[in-house]
Every structure is written in structure tokens, then in C-alpha cells.
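From the shared-data thread, chain only:
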Amino acid sequence: MTGTTLAPLIGVVLGGLVSWLAQYSLGRASERAEARRSIRECAEARRGERLTHLVEFLSTVQEAERVAVDHYQHHLGDEQWQARARQTVDRMWVAQKTIHMLCAPEVNEAARHLAFAVQNVIREGPDDPGQPQDEKVWACISPSRRKFLDVVRDHLR
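Structure, as C-alpha cells:
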């Protein structure tokens, strides 16, 4: 009699245990999948944020190049130009510092070199005083810009 009542009870306990283990395993798998999805979403959001700041930096660098061309090609140097130059250089360095906070060290280093190249060409002008000055300004900045773009491209892959 004990065997006939104990066998179904053992079956119920074993069935419940197997069911609980299956549910527990599925729950853990679901939690791990959710964690992976969350990590992917966070990485994509950070990538988008970095990309936004990198484009902002490039935009500011482009504006600073125009400031240099205005000075050396179009002979602007009045107070209005000087104020524009200071504001542009300040924005460029703020954008570079943001890159320092958000991006890999090699991206930051390339951004710093580009910012210094642009700042130097605004302050000192191109090395070659010949005409046309706009091309000389771009030639001074081009190697640093190319290096920055290459590093960023590799970083964003």
C-alpha cells in the first residue's frame, strides 16, 4: 500500500522539479538575452553619440579653416575677424575635449593634432607665403585631417 501511494507522489515531485528546472533555465536564458540586447543598445547609443560629436568637431574645424582662408587669402584681420577666430578656435577645442571624454585615445590624439594644426595655421599662416593662400592653408591642415579621418573610420568599424 505504501508503494502504491508513494510512486505517484514521487512522480508528482519529480515532474514538479523538472518543470521548475525548465522554467528556471528559460528564465535565466531570457535574462541573459535581455542583458545582451541591453548592452548592444547601449553600445549603439554611445556610438551614435560619439559620431555626433565627431561630426561637430569636423564642422568646427571646417569653420576654422574658413577663418584662416579669410585672413590669408582675403586679407581680413579686423576686430570682427579676430573675434570670430577666437570663438571658432574655442569651439574647436571644446569639441576636441568632448572627443577626449567619449572616444578612444588614438581618436583623441588625432583630434588634438588636427586642432593644433588648424590653430597654428590661423595664428601663423601657411609656411609658403606664395599665392593662392587658400590652397596653402588646406595643404598645412590636410595631413592632420587625413590622419584624423582614417583613425575615426577605423574606430567606428
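The radius of gyration is 30 Å.
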